[in-house]
Design a protein that fits this description.
By secondary structure, this protein is of the alpha+beta class. The chain has a single domain, classed as Muramoyl-pentapeptide Carboxypeptidase, domain 2. 41% of the residues lie in helices and 16% in strands. It is built from 9 helices and 6 strands; from the N terminus they run αβαβαβααβαβαβαα. The strands form 2 sheets. It has a 4-stranded antiparallel beta sheet with strand order 3-4-6-5. Helix 4 packs across helix 5. The radius of gyration is 16 Å and the shape is globular.
């Protein structure tokens, strides 16, 4: 389905009508399995509910159950964000870490995958606490995160901002940010070790 292959990044904005007529009606509430009240407050999510596109939500639940069977406990930190919530997020990063950090870690409203309902920031419960998917002090990932990255494509997800591709995605490496694109596309991207940007460029040349 073309919808699942939509490219939204720092150079490509989601169209307003598409956002209103396609994205918003597709959203369903999802269980996060962790307390996100702090982020809800920062992003001004008044109903304290996380939403994803319906198929994305269903596929994540399948991924989560599969991971649980392999002793990896997944949760959701952030899902769909409205344009307004995305601006609160961007401005928060600017205040806390500066504009340079914000530009590598967040996007303006309409240019963020979180505005599509197809992307989420996930987390791993490790050592009796959340935050297990975060990078260590040397910028490395743990074995659970590495394993997760090898199975995402089986459920239609890709690691959206992989290490070594920052010049293409214009985002820093984010081991937690995954994006639903469908099983066929995710398998191709995983096997070719490319980004969604590179996939879309290849497809446009066919």
């Amino acid at each position: 389905m073309t919808y699942y292959k939509i490219l939204v990044n720092k150079d490509t904005r989601i169209e307003e009508l598409y956002y209103e007529n396609i994205v918003k009606p597709s959203l369903v509430p999802v269980e996060t399995f962790k307390n996100n009240d702090m982020l809800y407050n920062i992003f001004h999510v008044e109903d304290k509910t996380t939403y994803l596109e319906k198929t994305t939500a269903n596929k994540f639940n399948l991924l989560r159950n599969y991971a649980k069977g392999n002793n990896v406990i997944l949760g959701i930190t952030s899902g769909f964000l409205t344009f307004e919530q995305q601006m609160f997020k961007y401005e928060y990063f600017v205040r806390k870490r500066g504009k340079e950090f914000a530009e590598k870690s967040a996007c303006f409203p309409g240019y963020s995958e979180h505005n599509t309902g197809l992307a989420l920031d996930c987390d791993i419960f490790k050592n009796n606490k959340w935050g297990g998917i975060a990078l260590d002090s040397e910028g490395n990932i743990n074995s659970e995160t590495a394993w997760l990255h090898t199975v995402l494509h089986k459920f239609g997800f890709i690691l959206r901002y992989p290490k070594g591709k920052e010049n293409i995605t214009k985002m820093k490496f984010e081991p937690w940010h995954i994006r639903y694109v469908g099983e066929d596309v995710s398998k191709f991207i995983y096997e070719k070790r490319i980004t969604l940007e590179e996939y879309c460029k290849l497809e446009s040349n066919i």
